């Protein structure tokens, strides 16, 4: 248990940061999952509207990943890996449909 005021304050700050980081990670995972779901819907019914939805969801996910990296919630290599996996999944779905 903390004995002085500075240690007590650090405990409070650490808890606040933990909750904020958890929120960022959760939002990021949700956006990635939504992005993958839009890939599935495009695969079932490929049209221009679905492609626009995919682009919008990917932009949101990339933005959230970049912000998480910037804030130090995740490591930059982890963020790059997540973006790379999304891009690979996008190409896997869109490339065969356009041929």
What's the short version?
The protein has 99 residues and is mostly helical. It has 3 helices and no strands.
Description:
It is built from 3 helices and no strands. Helix 1 runs antiparallel to helix 2 (48-71) and helix 2 runs antiparallel to helix 3 (76-98). The radius of gyration is 19 Å and the shape is elongated. Helices cover 88% and strands 0% of the residues. With 99 residues, it is mainly α. The longest helix is centred in the first third of the chain and has 40 residues, at 5-44. It has one domain: Methane Monooxygenase Hydroxylase, Chain G, domain 1 (Up-down Bundle). It starts with a helix and ends with a helix.
Rg, nearest Å = 19 Å
Number of strands: 0
CATH uppermost class: Mainly Alpha
Number of helix segments? 3
Largest sheet: none
End-to-end gap = 64 Å
Structural class: mainly alpha
Q: Please give the share of residues in helix.
A: over 70%
Mass-distribution shape: elongated
Summarize model confidence as the mean pLDDT: 92
Give the CATH topology. Methane Monooxygenase Hydroxylase, Chain G, domain 1
Low-confidence stretches: none
Number of domains: 1
What is the element string, with H for helices and E for strands? HHH
Approximate strand percentage: under 5%
Question: What would you say the CATH architecture is?
Answer: Up-down Bundle
